[in-house]
Amino acid sequence: MVKRSSSSNSDSLVGGSYEAKVAEIEKIIARIEAGELDLAEVFEQFAAAVESLRQCETFLQQRQQQVDLLIETLKDE
């Protein structure tokens, strides 16, 4: 059985969980699409969304490596 520690969800995500980052990205996209931001804020928020996406991608890659390792371990047994 694999134990999940409370810190494992935020190992590579600065400032929150994967789900929180996705919600943050969705909120940024909604604000941009709604025209709520001036041009400077659009660029600033877009940059923040891109950084959050990079963090999410890294998080998912790390978790995929863990899953692959667990599967390999099961095959060896």
From TrEMBL:
<comment type="function">
    <text>Bidirectionally degrades single-stranded DNA into large acid-insoluble oligonucleotides, which are then degraded further into small acid-soluble oligonucleotides.</text>
</comment>
<dbReference type="Pfam" id="PF02609">
    <property type="entry name" value="Exonuc_VII_S"/>
</dbReference>
<dbReference type="InterPro" id="IPR037004">
    <property type="entry name" value="Exonuc_VII_ssu_sf"/>
</dbReference>
<keyword id="KW-0540">Nuclease</keyword>
<dbReference type="GO" id="GO:0009318">
    <property type="term" value="C:exodeoxyribonuclease VII complex"/>
</dbReference>
<dbReference type="GO" id="GO:0008855">
    <property type="term" value="F:exodeoxyribonuclease VII activity"/>
</dbReference>
<dbReference type="GO" id="GO:0005737">
    <property type="term" value="C:cytoplasm"/>
</dbReference>
<dbReference type="InterPro" id="IPR003761">
    <property type="entry name" value="Exonuc_VII_S"/>
</dbReference>
<comment type="similarity">
    <text>Belongs to the XseB family.</text>
</comment>
<protein>
    <recommendedName>
        <fullName>Exodeoxyribonuclease 7 small subunit</fullName>
        <ecNumber>3.1.11.6</ecNumber>
    </recommendedName>
</protein>
<dbReference type="GO" id="GO:0006308">
    <property type="term" value="P:DNA catabolic process"/>
</dbReference>
<keyword id="KW-0269">Exonuclease</keyword>
<comment type="subunit">
    <text>Heterooligomer composed of large and small subunits.</text>
</comment>
<keyword id="KW-0963">Cytoplasm</keyword>
<keyword id="KW-0378">Hydrolase</keyword>
